[in-house]
Amino acid sequence: MNHDAAAPIRLVKGVGPQRARLLERLGIITVRDALSYLPFRYEDRSSPGKIASLAYDEVTTVTGKVVAAEVVTPNPRRRGLKIFELTVSDESGFLKAKWFNQQFLKKIFKPGQTVVLYGTVKRTYRGAGFEMLNPEYEFLDEEDAGDPGQIHTGRIVPVYRITEGLSQKQLRSIMHTVVQGAAASVADSVPAGIVRRLGLPGLQESLRNVHFPAPSLSLEDLNRGVSPYHQRLAFDELFTLQLGLAAIKKGEVREKGISFSPDGRLTGALRERLPFTLTGAQERVIRDILSDMRSPVPMSRLVQGDVGSGKTIVALIALLAAVESGYQAALMAPTEILAEQHYITMHHLVEELGMKVLLLTGSKRNRKGDVIASDGADIIIGTHALIQEGVVFEKLGLVVIDEQHRFGVLQRATLKKKGLNPDTLLMTATPIPRTMALTLYGDLDYSIIDELPPRRSPVITRHIPEKQKGCLYPLIEDEVKKGRQVYVVYPVIEESEKTTLKDALTGWEAFRMKFPHLTVGLIHGKMKTAEKEEVMHSFKEGRIGLLVSTTVIEVGVDVPNATLMIIIHAERFGLAQLHQLRGRVGRGSSQSHCILLSYGITEDARKRLEVMVMTNDGFRIAEEDLAIRGPGEMFGTRQSGIPDLRIANLIRDARLLEVARREAFSLIEEDSSLRDFPLLRKTLEDFWGKRIEMVKTA
C-alpha cells in the first residue's frame, strides 16, 4: 500500500492509534517523519559468526538458542544483589548474558527461544568462556529466518532507538512497510543540476539504503553515518537549512536601513579616557562595524571574541557612534545579572561624556518605559524586557545583543521592529566552531577579535580532587602576600535541603575565619545592583583581598590584580562557563592560576576538566564542548529559531555543510524567491515552519 509522505503514521499498516501514540514519543507523526527517523546503528546478521570464534572485548552480535534462564544470588552476604543469567548456544559453544537486579527478565526468556544479543564479549568470572553484561536483546521467530523480506536477520539489519511499549522488531517492521510504500513516491526537491554536479545518489535510493542497506555497503560506513546514502540525506537537510539563512540575508540586503554619520566626538573622548590602547584586532573589528553603520543596508554582524579580548569596549564605541549620529542605542543581555554587569561597566564612562544611560530589566520595567519614549535616554541596557509590549523607543538606531546564542531569531526580530529598521550587532564571548557559526549565524557577517591585549600570560590551570583541597589555603596566602587578589566561585548562594553542594554564604563565613587579616567580600545574584556595584568597586580598588562569588562574576569584570581563581564544584559547571570564569584572571602582567576543585566526578565532567587543564584556547575548548555535548545542547538550538537537525551531524558533516552553504547561497543569489523551484520552496517552508518569516524576498 503506497502512502503519501504527509500522511499520518497511524494509517500505515501495522500501526493504528495505540502504536501511533508510542511513535509520537519518538517524534514520528507523519510518514515523512518516519523516513527521517534513521537507525542509530546497524548489525551484520547476514552470516553470523559462531560463538566458538568470538574474541574478548569485541562488540558484536550473537544469535543463539536459549538453553537456561535463571535468577542467582552470587554472594550470600549481599542478598539484595540478584543477577539474571541467560545461557545461549549455537552448537559451537555457549555464551552467558547477565543483567543485574532485573529479575523480571525471567518471565520474558524461555528455553528454546532464538535470541539475538548485542554487546561487548567479556571473559567469564572463572576465566574460561564468554559472557556479556547487560547486552541489548531481540527475539527471532522461526519464520524470521525464512522471511522473504529478510527484515530481522540474514542481512545488514537496522537498529532504531525505541520507546517503552514498542519493541525493536515491531518498529523495524513498521519502518519496512513505510519504506516499501512511501520511498518511491517522495519527490526530490533538490535541483537536478546540483545533484549531478556533486555526484549525489538519488533521494529514493538513499531512503531505501539508509533504512535497509544493500549487502554491498560497508558496515563501518553505515555505523559512522558516512555511506553515500547517509551523506545525500544529510546534504538535503543542510542545504534546506542554509537556503533559509541565505533567504534571510538576501531579504535584509534589500531592506532600507539607516546611514549613520558618526563624527567621532564621543568615541574620541572615550578613547582619551581609556587607560589602555586598543589592540589591532579591536581596531579592525571597529572599522568593520563603522563601515556597516555608514552603509544604507541594515547591519547584521556577529562579533566573536574570547574572554578578555575586549568586546565590551568595541560594543561601547558602536553604541556611542549611533548616539553621535542622533539615534538611541540599546544593548540587550540574556539575564538581569549580565545586563547589570554591562550597566556597571559602562555607565560611569558614558555619563562622564554627558550621555544618559538607563538600565531596564523585568523588575525595573514600569518606571523606565516613559523615559525611553520621551527620548530621555541615549543608551538603554536591559534584558528581554526591552522587547516587551509597552516599551517604546523614540529613535532606536542600533541594537547590540550580547551572548547572541541565548536569544532566538524571533526575539532579535521583535527588538528590531522597535526601531527604524535598526542596525544589529551581535556579540558572543563563546568561541564558536566554524560549523556552528555557519549554522546558527549563517545570515550574518562576522568578525573575530583574535588577539588578546599585550603582556598577558596564559592562565595555568590545575584540577584538584576534594581530598587535596588543603593545599588551597597556602596558595591563597601566597598570592595575598604578593599583594594579589583572589576569586572563589561557588555553584549556589546558600545551603539547601535539595542539594549537598557547597554554597557561597557558608564559604564566605569559613574564609573570614580562616583569613581574619584579610577583607573577604561576598557577591551574588540576589543582591541589589547598587550593592553589587559597591562590592565590585571595592574589589577593583583593592580594598577586598578575597572575593567569594557565584557565577555573577562570569562576565564583564576586569581586575588586573586578581591572579587566582578557585572554582568550587568545578565538575558542576559547563566548559563554556568554566572558560568564562577563568577569564576573570590573567588580565594583568602577573602569572595567574585557576584551580578546579571537584567533589566526585562523571566521565563527561572528567573530560571537561581535562580540556580546561590542557588548553586556554577558547576555539579549541568550543570544539571539545561540541564533541562532548553535541550542538543542540551546547547552543540551545531549539531556542535559537534554527530548526532541529534530525539527520546531519555538524561535527561529522562539516565539509558537507560548507558545500551545502555554497550551493544554497548561490541559488538564492540567482533566484531569490525560488520561483523556478516551487517544490524546493515548499520543502523550505515545511522545514523552517513558523519559526521565522520565511522568505522576505518574495
From TrEMBL:
Keywords: ATP-binding, DNA damage, DNA recombination, DNA repair, DNA-binding, Helicase, Hydrolase, Isomerase, Nucleotide-binding. InterPro entries: ATP-dep_DNA_helicase_RecG (IPR004609), DEAD/DEAH_box_helicase_dom (IPR011545), Helicase_ATP-bd (IPR014001), Helicase_C-like (IPR001650), NA-bd_OB-fold (IPR012340), P-loop_NTPase (IPR027417), RecG/Mfd (IPR047112), RecG_dom3_C (IPR045562). Residues 292-449 form the Helicase ATP-binding domain. It catalyses: Couples ATP hydrolysis with the unwinding of duplex DNA by translocating in the 3'-5' direction; ATP + H2O = ADP + phosphate + H(+). Pfam families: DEAD, Helicase_C, RecG_dom3_C, RecG_wedge. One of its GO terms (molecular function) is ATP binding. Gene3D superfamilies: Nucleic acid-binding proteins, P-loop containing nucleotide triphosphate hydrolases. It comes from the Bacteria. Its EC number is 5.6.2.4. GO terms for biological process: DNA recombination; DNA repair. It is an enzyme of class 5 (isomerase). Transmembrane segments: none annotated. Residues 475-627 form the Helicase C-terminal domain. NCBIfam families: PRK10917.1-3, PRK10917.2-2, recG. Plays a critical role in recombination and DNA repair. Helps process Holliday junction intermediates to mature products by catalyzing branch migration. Has replication fork regression activity, unwinds stalled or blocked replication forks to make a HJ that can be resolved. Has a DNA unwinding activity characteristic of a DNA helicase with 3'-5' polarity. Belongs to the helicase family. RecG subfamily. This is ATP-dependent DNA helicase RecG. It comes from Candidatus Nitrobium versatile.
